[in-house]
Design goal:
By secondary structure, the protein is of the alpha/beta class. The protein is built from 13 helices and 7 strands. It is globular.
Amino acid sequence: MTASTPTNLLPQLPNPNDLLKLAYQTVQQGKSAFGLAHKQLNTRLLSALKPVERPSQPIPPDLMTRLQALRDELLATDWQDVERGVYGPEVAFDSPWEDFVKFYPLVCLDGWQLWDRAVEKRYQEFSDTIDTTGYPDYYLQNFHHQTDGYLSDWSANLYDVQVELLFNGSADAMRRRVLAPIAQGVREFPEVTGQALRVLDAACGTGRTLRFIRSILPKASLVGVDLSPAYLRKANQNLSQQPGTLPQLIQANAEQLPFVDDHFHVTTSTFLFHELPAAARSAVIRELFRVTQPGGTVVICDSIQTADVPELEPMLLGFPAMFHEPYYRHYLTDDLVTYLEQAGFEAVETSTHFLSKYWVARKPH
């Protein structure tokens, strides 16, 4: 190159951020294609082995197009939060790859048990080695026809892989939508730093949401509560691989949280409420209000409801039958805003992303 070479003739190097975004989109497209292929092949094989009496109707092409558009919007928002600095690109790329490689073959093998349980309508089936005493009756279900429901290490090990396949690789992107409102809620307490900042994840499951929260709050005191000892063991395994202080994990019912009043600056819960009867939903929200500090924020993530995307209503109504979600039909029209306001929360805001819905509210001072 000479001094007289015009700068507009120089080769343009790609923007590293554009390359990261392209890599993210490529990974997500691969997840989606794999999830769709898995479900189609799995359903065809199992249907041939044991046909169902009333096979589910395929999703119409126009509805598939609408779902793809909603998913694309979700992924665009996920990357926008990277660009906004809510979390780093490593968080958007965070996936349980090791578990996928290790447990995907077992998911395929377990598929026959799930299918057989669904066809035979065996909804409360647990291994003899599992002690079911002390749990609420509504909890003793084979949600999603899972082997042993939520009460075995087998179920806990397969869960994240199963959910990612169900949502074509977008489950984590939906979970990450709680991070921006959590970060905003934390900013309401600028004088609180380090471990003095306390965040609760109710029904934390395998710890995926806690893992994401840790990525944006590396020094905060994080607490996870769940009814399942098996899922808490899995959460401990997952979270112990992450730098920083291990979140405190406690076995407890979210209807009776073992904390003093006004203890947490932010409380959250992901994909819990659609698996609760109405009375339990209201009870959990009252407990979240009780343990949230005045001025604190609650962030709830769960399934969309029928009024949010009316054209998806046929698919939503068919979901509980296909996946054994006994409280889902009532959830679809239940009013969580009223529960939040009756508990004492104010400034309730709602939003939707793909197949998930979010409620963000403030506890008044």
